[in-house]
C-alpha cells in the first residue's frame, strides 16, 4: 500500500486528548505541510487509496475527516446530516479551534455557513439579484477588462500572469457587478488579498474591518443612487424585509470571498495546464468551440478549490466503513474526488476530449457554487483572448511553479512568462 503522507501519530488528538475525530484505527494525515502544498495530488492519491474517509490535520492544527472518493464526496455534499453552522462543531465549542481564515468564514454568519431555513432564504435573494441576465451583461465588460490588461502586458515581452492577468480580472468584474466606484477599487483589492492570502492575524482583522467599511460605503452610495447592479438589487430585497442589513453585508462579503481567488486560480491553473500541454492548447486555439471543454477539464484536473469548506455531522454517520461522530468536522476533498479512477478513466491525465464529465469542483447540493456560470464565462473570455494575443506565450526560463500555502485553495503565487512583444492598443483604461 502507498505510504501515508505526513503521519501525525504524536498529535494530541491522535493521543486522544481532544475530542476531534476519534481515529482509533487510523493515524492522522497532515495537510498543513509543505509536502501537501507542493504535491497535493500525490498526497490525495495516497489518501484516496487508503479509505473514503480519512482523519486529517489541516492548517491551524485542526482535526477533521477528509472525504476522498468520488461517490462518497457527492453523497456528503448533498447529505442533510452534514450541517454548515458552526454550532454543530464540537471542537469549536471546546475552544480547540484556532481562528484561521477559513474558520473565520465559517464562524461568521453567512450563506456559506448557514443551513435551512436561513440558507434557503439567503440563497433565493442572492440568486434573484445575481440573475442570468445580470451575469450575461458582464460579458462585454469581461472582454474589455481582459483586453485592457493585455494592452498593458503585450508591449513588454514578459509578465507575471497571476498578478497582471488572473487576479485583476475577477476582482474588476466583482467591482463592476457590485457597482464599486473606481476610487474604492484599489482598497477592495488590497484588503481582499490580505484577507485571503494568509496575512498575519492582526492584519487579517484589520483587513476584515476595512472590507466591511468599504462595502458599507458601497451600500450607502448605491442606496443614494441606485443602478442596475447587484448591490442595488440586494438593497431592494433588504428594503422589502427579505433580508436584514447584516445579511445584505454578509452576502456582499460572501460574493467577494467566493468570486475572486477562486476564479483567479482557475485562470492561472488553466494557463499553467495549457503551457504544460501544448497539443491541447493547439486544439483549443484552432477550434474555439472547445474552450468550455478545456475549462471543465482544468476544473477537474487542477481544481481551484481543492477542499470544500467545513461541514459538521449532526448525527453519527458511517462513510466507507468509518464512523463519523456527531459534532465531527468534515471536509470534502473536491480535487481528490475529481481524480478518482472509479469515476474518471486515466484520471491523472489532462484530457480535454474525455467523455466522463461531472467533476465536483463547484460543489453539489444546496451549497452548489452560485458563481459557476460567471467563473466559466470569465475563463472562456480571458483564455482565448490571452492565447490569441500572445501566440508564442511560454514560461519564463527557470521559473518554478509555486503555489500558495492553503488547505482549501489551489492557486499559483506567480506565473512568469515570456512572449514576443507587440504594441498595445491606444487608450487602455483598466479601473482595477
Ligand atoms: C472557478 C471558480 C470557483 C470555484 C472553483 C468555486 C467553488 C465553490 C464551491 C466548491 C462552493 C461550495 C462550497 C461548499 O459546499 O463547501 C462554492 C460556493 C459558493 N460560491 Fe463559488 N466558486 C467559484 C467562483 C465563484 C464566483 C465567481 C462567485 C461569485 C461571484 C462565487 C460565489 C460563491 C458563493 C456565494 C457560494 C456559496 C453558495 C451557498 O452556500 O449556497 N463562486 N463555490
Automatic annotation (TrEMBL):
<protein>
    <submittedName>
        <fullName>Cytochrome P450</fullName>
    </submittedName>
</protein>
<dbReference type="InterPro" id="IPR017972">
    <property type="entry name" value="Cyt_P450_CS"/>
</dbReference>
<feature type="compositionally biased region" description="Low complexity">
    <location>
        <begin position="10"/>
        <end position="25"/>
    </location>
</feature>
<keyword id="KW-0349">Heme</keyword>
<feature type="region of interest" description="Disordered">
    <location>
        <begin position="1"/>
        <end position="25"/>
    </location>
</feature>
<dbReference type="GO" id="GO:0020037">
    <property type="term" value="F:heme binding"/>
</dbReference>
<dbReference type="Pfam" id="PF00067">
    <property type="entry name" value="p450"/>
</dbReference>
<dbReference type="GO" id="GO:0004497">
    <property type="term" value="F:monooxygenase activity"/>
</dbReference>
<keyword id="KW-0408">Iron</keyword>
<dbReference type="InterPro" id="IPR036396">
    <property type="entry name" value="Cyt_P450_sf"/>
</dbReference>
<keyword id="KW-0560">Oxidoreductase</keyword>
<dbReference type="GO" id="GO:0016705">
    <property type="term" value="F:oxidoreductase activity, acting on paired donors, with incorporation or reduction of molecular oxygen"/>
</dbReference>
<keyword id="KW-0479">Metal-binding</keyword>
<dbReference type="InterPro" id="IPR002397">
    <property type="entry name" value="Cyt_P450_B"/>
</dbReference>
<dbReference type="InterPro" id="IPR001128">
    <property type="entry name" value="Cyt_P450"/>
</dbReference>
<keyword id="KW-0503">Monooxygenase</keyword>
<dbReference type="GO" id="GO:0005506">
    <property type="term" value="F:iron ion binding"/>
</dbReference>
<comment type="similarity">
    <text>Belongs to the cytochrome P450 family.</text>
</comment>
Amino acid at each position: 500500500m502507498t505510504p501515508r503522507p505526513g503521519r501525525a501519530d504524536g498529535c494530541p488528538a491522535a493521543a486522544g486528548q481532544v475530542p476531534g475525530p476519534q481515529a482509533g484505527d487510523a493515524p492522522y494525515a497532515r495537510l498543513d505541510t509543505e509536502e501537501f502544498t507542493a504535491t497535493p495530488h500525490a498526497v490525495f492519491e495516497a489518501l484516496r487509496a487508503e479509505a473514503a474517509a480519512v482523519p486529517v490535520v489541516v492548517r491551524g492544527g485542526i482535526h477533521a475527516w477528509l472525504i476522498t472518493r468520488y461517490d462518497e464526496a457527492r453523497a456528503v455534499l448533498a447529505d442533510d446530516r452534514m450541517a454548515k453552522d458552526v454550532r454543530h462543531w464540537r471542537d469549536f465549542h471546546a475552544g480547540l479551534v484556532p481562528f484561521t481564515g477559513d474558520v473565520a468564514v465559517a464562524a461568521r454568519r453567512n450563506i456559506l455557513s448557514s443551513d435551512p431555513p436561513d440558507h434557503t432564504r439567503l440563497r433565493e435573494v442572492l440568486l434573484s439579484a445575481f440573475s442570468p441576465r445580470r451575469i450575461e451583461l458582464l460579458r462585454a465588460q469581461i472582454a474589455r477588462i481582459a483586453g485592457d490588461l493585455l494592452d498593458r502586458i503585450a508591449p513588454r515581452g514578459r509578465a507575471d500572469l497571476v498578478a497582471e492577468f488572473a487576479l485583476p480580472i475577477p476582482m474588476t468584474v466583482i467591482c463592476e457587478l457590485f457597482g464599486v466606484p473606481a476610487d474604492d477599487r484599489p482598497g477592495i483589492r488590497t484588503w481582499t488579498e490580505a484577507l485571503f492570502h494568509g496575512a498575519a492575524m492582526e492584519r487579517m482583522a484589520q483587513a476584515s474591518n476595512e472590507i466591511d467599511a468599504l462595502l458599507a460605503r458601497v451600500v450607502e452610495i448605491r442606496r443614494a443612487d441606485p443602478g442596475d447592479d447587484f448591490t442595488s438589487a440586494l438593497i431592494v430585497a433588504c428594503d422589502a424585509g427579505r433580508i436584514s442589513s447584516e445579511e445584505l453585508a454578509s452576502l456582499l462579503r460572501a460574493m467577494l470571498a467566493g468570486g475572486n481567488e477562486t476564479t483567479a486560480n482557475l485562470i492561472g491553473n488553466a494557463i499553467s495546464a495549457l503551457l504544460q500541454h501544448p497539443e491541447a492548447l493547439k486544439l483549443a486555439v484552432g477550434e474555439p468551440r472547445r474552450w468550455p471543454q478545456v475549462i471543465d477539464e482544468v476544473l477537474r484536473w487542477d481544481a481551484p478549490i481543492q477542499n470544500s469548506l467545513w461541514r459538521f455531522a449532526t448525527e453519527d454517520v458511517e462513510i466507507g466503513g468509518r464512523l463519523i461522530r456527531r459534532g465531527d468536522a468534515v471536509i470534502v476533498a473536491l480535487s481528490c474526488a475529481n481524480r478518482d479512477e472509479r469515476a474518471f478513466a486515466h484520471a491523472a491525465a489532462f484530457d480535454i476530449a474525455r467523455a466522463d464529465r461531472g467533476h465536483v469542483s463547484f460543489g453539489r447540493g444546496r451549497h452548489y457554487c452560485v458563481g459557476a456560470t460567471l467563473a466559466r464565462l470569465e475563463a472562456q473570455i480571458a483564455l482565448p483572448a490571452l492565447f490569441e494575443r500572445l501566440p508564442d506565450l511560454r514560461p519564463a526560463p527557470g521559473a518554478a511553479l509555486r503555489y500558495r500555502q492553503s488547505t482549501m485553495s489551489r492557486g499559483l503565487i506567480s506565473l512568469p512568462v515570456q512572449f514576443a512583444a507587440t504594441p498595445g492598443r491606444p487608450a487602455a483604461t483598466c479601473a482595477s
